[in-house]
Batch of 2 targets.
Target 1
Amino acid sequence: MPTYIFKKFFLLLFTMWFVVTLIFFVLRSVPGGPAYTALGPYATREAVKELERKWGLDKPIMTQYSSFLRKLFRGDLGESYISGIPISRQIRETLPYTLDLTFAGMLIGIIFGVPLGLLTAVKRNSTIDYGGRVFSLCGLSFPEFFLGVLLIFLFSVKWKIFPAMGGGDLDNLGSRLLNIVLPGCTLGMVMISFISRMTRSSVLNVLQENYIRAARAKGLTEFLVIFKHALRNASIPITTVVGIYFSILMGGAIMTEVVFTRPGLGKLMIFALKDRDYMLLQSSLIVFTGFVFVINALTDVLYAFIDPRIRR
Amino acid sequence: METQAQIGRLFRVLRKNRISFIGIILAFLITAIAMIAPLISDNPNEQHVLRQYEPPSLSHLFGTDEYGRDVFARVVWGARISLLVGVLSVFLALVFGVAIGVIGGYKGGVIDEIILRVVDIFMSFPILVLGLFVLAVMGSGISRVIMAIALAMTPRVARLVRGTTLSLKEMQFIQAARAIGQRDSKIIFFHILPNVVGDVIVMGALWVGTAILVESSLSFVGLGISPPTPSWGAIIRDGLDHLRNAPHIPISAGLAIFVTVFSFNLVADGLRDISDPKLRG
């Protein structure tokens, strides 16, 4: 196990280095360069040069790269090109909103998705199964931002129950919860669909195993067969897939934050993109992807922990 | 020949599978509507400022928007954009992904190891983030959106095809082809590729749906297709500001996305049931 964790950790470091390097070089290859894009087509050559000097873009690219890596290693994410605010502060302020949202989405997904998947698998080919499957297919086909729009229309504009915009006050639990309901449900809906489909197929796979037949043959009640034998074994693939879907969850979180104007990491990234603030974009992309990679690595380790066959 | 037989078999079974059959009919209908869009309205950008925010009526099926443009015409023209982006980007992704996947799976060794690592890294990015990243560098516009989505999907195709190729490589008919001394290129083109096609078609339907969702998301955040070109995502974004007095605008575009993606997902779901007999109903 320690060797496995060590290997995973090393791979994670390598992956992070690769991605950080990729982001660094690709963003510097914008036609005309970041300074030109930030100033727009009417900027004079001198203005662009001046801005490049200010941002340190006039130095040789490898010098920029090594100083970028050194700073990143110390946790210094630089300053926003446009507002001049330290990016680490901006990220610290936005991260809780994204964490709340992803947590809520995942929670709703698991709470409703696993039972739904189990039910459709056990009642296979019945009306319940078809209903459940069509429901989850609908969830996959619904763009999360449109679901958000619908929820806003119903619960904020028409019935005025929940706030439509913002993330609420972080120090005020009531307002924080009130503001997470609609975005959380939006994201949760997508997760319910993914998780219930995955649960269904892995439970179906397990139900065909010999040990299930054995459990039934020795006269166990169907309840025990399903919950003690089937679900427990099916939970192994479900755990990994929940990890894999984390990247989908994060992608969905961006759109959800945009619709609900929730001041999270995804919104920050879109803001940086639209403002052509390449420094902010670079750092928020690094934090965002780093988050996804760390979670993925953790799921892998967790998986190996549950299922010893993986550790090879 | 093999491919033809495979596709023929696929369609025969498809007809029996009711779910995917409904999906095929829906997808076909949407494509037909997209094709005859010019007959429905010759200009989706025609403005009638005096007829702002009209609710749905017989003359304007989905009502009008803030410039008095007919929302139905915009949604119908939007179908052209969505389908174009969906199909073309998946096609491009298939071309590159199949090439990369087959080479990796067939050659094995260091090449495969490198391909696998890079593909895995790209796969852990959300497709949307990859798309945004590419657009940030290339700028927006329809051809760039297509390229961005294709780039974001290529690793997924490569991963799938690599797996299939790996298992095919061990099959007896490939071993036999090798034993009689056929060249690698011949084996790849005549034996591996035709057998990969089946898998790719199943996932292709799913990916078209995903690509349409990603395009609408990109346009929704204002980084995809630029106005006034009618794109479903952009119609929803514009409608968001007028949710109180004109909810019909975002709702009609949103339903259009839903029905389209749903139909492709139905097709994919049915196809997968067929290809995975264990889960077959």
Target 2
Amino acid sequence: MVSLSNHERVLAEVDVLGRGANRGDRAFQTVVTAIAACVPIMLLGIVILLLLDALPALLRYGGAFLTQTTWDPVAEKFGAAAYVYGTVVTSLIALLLATPIGVGCALFIAEYAPIWMRAPVSFVIELLAAIPSIIYGLWGFFILAPIMRGAIEPFLKNSLGNVPAIGALFSGPAVGRDLLVAGVILSIMILPTITAVSREILRAVPDTQREGMLALGATRWETIRKAVLPYARGGIVGAAILGLARALGETMAVTMVIGNSSTQIRASLFTPGYTMASAIANQFTEADKEIYFSAIVSVALILLVVAAIMNILARLLVWSVARAPRAS
Amino acid sequence: MLTSLLAPPRPEPVEQEPPRAGMCARDVSAWYNVSRKAIENVSLGVAANHITAIIGPSGCGKSTFIRCLNRMHEVVRGARAAGTVELNGQDIYAPNVDPVRVRRVVGMVFQKPNPFPMMTIFENVVAGLRLEGGHSNRALEEIAERALHQAALWDEVKDVWKRASGISLSGGQQQRLCIARTLAVEPTVILMDEPCSALDPIATYRIEELMIELKKDYTIAIVTHNMQQASRVSDDTAFMLAEEDRIGRLVEFGPTSRIFTNPTERRTEDYITGRFG
Amino acid sequence: MGRWQRRRITNALATALMTLSATAAVTVLLIILGHVVMQGLPSLNVAFFTERPLPPGEVGGGVAPAILGTLEMLGVAGLIGIPVGIATAIYLSEYGRGNLARAISFSVDLIAGLPSIAIGVFVWAWLVRNVVGQYNGLAGGVALAIIMIPILTRTVEETLRIVPDPLREASLALGIPRWKTILRVVLPTAQAGVITGVVLSLARAGGETAPLLLTALGNQFFNLDLLQPTAALPIQIYNYARSPYPDWQAKAWGGALVLITLIGVLSALTRWAVGRRTHAY
């Protein structure tokens, strides 16, 4: 970032050339700049409006908004803890499933695949990313959920249900509309994000690192494990965070398979629940009272802030790997 | 299994001729993909405990050739090599030979120093040893210290070697670190691909001194575009050239003194005297 | 020998795992696409595209209002989003230096990362509950515009940056003012990329459901009044999927097939026709 890119240097020269120039240039620049400036203004507008509309609920319920599970519009008690819980659990499941497979895919494309295979596989990943959320929801609802209910969840229950500690995760009746199914659908949806970003990160690892390790007599996997992945570590974490950020905000696919019925926080993954996004999608039509409306906006605001922070964090991590190696 | 490829030759009593731990390349050709041939039928011998230099203008294939000596050339997707390269009497390109094992006994130092940034100096030196496993921490430290001594880097890093990152050193020091890393696994042959071209003259001089010192125990082959360097350090020199077809071939090979004072080939003489390249 | 064998086995295992991951991803995609095609194809007939939905339980009819509604709202989105997106891209590529440019670039990236439901809530709070007072198609279009602007901006900005500087310099050296250079030289040179950006961002926006749910709400009837609730294909799919009627459920798949075909065809077409993005894999 010390020297200007060639493009910027040309722009700088151009400014000097055009200094005495005509009103047309100034007008055009003003118009373009004004329109472009609408973008940050729009962003600010979104944040401010959401904040203002959420304020009544936030002020009234304070921190309890995040810790109470009672969501009772009639009694005007709003606690979003169950929604937060659902969001966290489903996103974590998605992350746990999608990160290894996503990084594995990225490693396959970057390190193992023959040259002719790279483009098609990458294309497949991009296709997965382009499928709209509602179609994932449709597929999850009609195809995945019955399979989960009929085969996978009973299997998990029988095999792991009696193991101490984690057995509690797989207890209770398996209905097929629960946190687990939502988590699985989410994992498919965030897989492309993690793969694409990881692939870019792996490309940023210099070949000299691989060569150095290979020249010492390392196998391909040892080279990846000891030279490539440590170098790429920060970026891959960034990729995972970006995937997580996407999972947090997913609405349609989740809302179709998560049950949307219970605001109880129970240990089992087989319980139906809500995520913050699915709760909004399910309830917004019923927001007749101002405080109800404000509570819903509060949920959206929290989602927005968390997603934004994660995005910034992830970008910093990814950027740092692409620029230069960090000495440990 | 080619067990003999793993162990360096044991030193024999002085009266006998020590076994030749050199490499012998015969008709080595290499391609970057099916259509792009890089070098053709290069044959030369890297004599044991000698420094053999490979010189030639840019694009003549000298780097490609040297990378065929430790089977690094085929790492690039789509690349291929053919021919015979004998080490201790065994062909490293024989069908049942695993390239991974070849690279363990034929080490390489690269043009741009490439220490691993996420490892300390110590961890860098023992990186190769850790691959094969089976060394206690004590043993690793001893081997690392010895390697750093051999690479003339010990005094400069001994206080920080377990704390400082591999990239916290200067360019010349990093290259010596890479040499130490290569020495730690005790290869039979050390290949150097323009090891000084990214370094300043003083660092270059120190590495050249190091090479001369190292040849007592190791066999060294070095690619260099610097003719003065080749005439300073090497015992034998090979001159390569690529004609219009962009395929690199060996033009002449022989003792350094002869190549630089009385070359046989006209093209060699033209290159040495600076008429081209 | 044991250690060496272990290393070889580990290496082989790792290779197998990586290949398995990639195979899994490809397989999942094929399964999903396969289901959409298999389940959706039977529902596609002329009526599907031209008629409006029949009362619940009756078999027949179509989703024409939804298709029309989507097109209407994409029109609104385009009207707002295309000028803003391209102007922002021009600013960032041709003028952007300094703090304002950094702020704008940062905002673009940030908005791109916002959950679409949050954008829906924003437009819901602003246009539906306040300005207009009811669910309406205009709000839907605005929400889609907010979603498409970052995508369009980034794509077009990248394209403009690729236009070689000597082209600009030559034009300016001829005395052509900066603004004409941009509009008559740079933009036309990049037009393939710009068109790709527009098509792709519209396609992406067209598949969004959550923000439309909170703004346009959906409608069973044809609607040309943008201040009324308006149907959209993704919403129609959503509602039909949750209904208990097999005919409607089948139509949901049909709608999904239409949606995915459109997005797929548009993406493939623009990518192929343009070919400017040479992805080095």
